[in-house]
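Incident log entry.

Two folding requests arrived from the same account within the same minute. Monitoring flagged them as a possible duplicate submission, but the sequences differ. Recording both here for audit purposes.

Request one:
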Amino acid sequence: MLRGFYTAASGMIAQQRTQEALSNNIANANTPGYKADQTSLKAFPEMLMQQMGGKTIPTSNSLNLPIQNPIGSLNTGVYVQEAAPNFMQGDLRETSIPTDMALVNGTLPDEAGALLFSVQNEEGDVRYTRNGNFTVDGQGYLVTNQGYYVLDEAGNPIQTDGMEFSVSEDGIVQTNAGNYGLGIAYTADANGMEKEGNGLFNGEAGAVPAGATYNVQQGFLERSNVDSLQSMTRMMESYRLFETNQRVLKAYDESLGKAVSEIGRLA
């Protein structure tokens, strides 16, 4: 009985975390470059159930041999193994603002690979983003809306000295002071990237390999890849599963109550 109690409770916790991920996706459905989180559920380690018994051999000493008959496997619960971002390309929205840039995937050498803009956070560390909603700060540097420097190929902030600049499809920022190559980074395992908030990712990324192709669209933004209708449907399914586990948990609780109050009193 106690095993079923904890199994139902683990199902409720797993569905609650799934609801949190789906709610966050829906809240960011209009955030440029946002990548939807996908949760994966995994069962607790399986236990092999066996029937323990014995067989008496008709000898002078009545020898008793232990026998184990396999019954099957039993899972003891479920949990959310991970919430990995889905790096599927989002739709483009034209803004005609020169500081807006959309990174469009072409051919990638790895199925799980992804391309990202390189930026510098407030601690001076390199982070990555798909949100190309950039602007120019008071010193003429290209920055994100949170004030993080957008980096070039050499890992330095890009000085545009105003709004009068253009960006070619191959990621070259052309300004009056010179040209800079956008710091486009590539990761072969996008599922390993961790979200840090403000549209930033942290993880292993490096130079774009020779087999990868892409283009940068100035005056466009990449939309979030969240499917709001699908997310709402999944939220309803998750909520129903939560309620089902809740009813099972309540039934076990009532059974335990009877075991304590009624069976104990009769004894």
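Request two (distinct sequence, not a duplicate):
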Amino acid sequence: MNYIKRALSDEISGRLFTGKAIILYGPRQCGKTTMIKHLVASYSDQVLWLNGDDPDTRQTLSGITTASWKRLLGKRSILVLDEAQRIENVGLALKLVVDELPDVQVIASGSSSFELMNRTAETLTGRKFEYQLFPFSFAELCEEHGLFAEKRERERRMLYGSYPDVVTHPGDEQQRLSELAGSYLFKDIFALEGLRRTSILDKLIRALAMQIGSEVNYQELAGLTGTDCKTIERYIDLLVKCYILFPLGAYSTNLRNEIKKSRKIYFCDLGIRNAVINNFTSLDSRTDAGGMWENYLIIERFKKIRNLPFPPRTFFWRTLAPQSHEIDYLEEAQGQLYAWEIKLRQNSKARIPQAFLKAYPNAVTNILTPDYFDHFLLD
């Protein structure tokens, strides 16, 4: 199977051997290991590759010293630590290499952002470059297949998502998504504080899957799952930090009747979402196609902007009843506000609400449809 180049490859290659560790976050099975292997392929026997999922590795790195690192590394110039969040005191262990062995390039990856960030934040301050890798983006697949060919795959991506194992095995998508969604993607959540997969978590994920594109009501979710709002908030936070969900907050500055604290929740991959509800029927026979289209564009845009040096702030916008108006997606960057309304079907009556234009007359606005969206994900 041909390797599909990741957009981050050139950026990370340019950071190698510049005196700082490379920290790569992202969900399990999104291609972190494969990308790193391609990045270091030309260094051949100069690489020491360790995996934090391996008990022997965890034991070896427990309380490791500079002298121990020198013995482990020998004359090798690259240290790769995969699933680094599983290593106790991983930040301190990697700091020793960065500080005491400056000729060694550290590359650490992890599938659990909150664990790895927490364990490296203080000890590696000023000593690292951080990146996030996701399932294939629209831009990456366009680079591989061409723009027109990839646009023709729009429905397939909305149904099956863009995990590498799914994209590279057409015809076997549902089986591979079943294995991914069954438990593998939730492995990091279950490892936390003895947490086990419960009916509450299953019900919550399904409830969120059924209301993509809608605002989240914690009380309603608590009632559906038979728990309390604090538990719902905690589980959603964990699902976000494990790259299963993506939250979008409300934008508010000018109007008294703007909502201020609400959130929408999207899935980081629509294939996972559709596997959760076991529905892969075609878009023309679905009632949730509009929400899926909104989810697809917003998460693909997120992939594009997330690794920018100063990514824009992202929001949705809505006013309160009785005359409620809404904008699906907003970005605020360098003092400029941008707004997009997302429509699955071309509609000559689609407009940006006058209430928004009046409140934010300097905002740059646009309408996205299946016939007019590639600039949003590429430019």
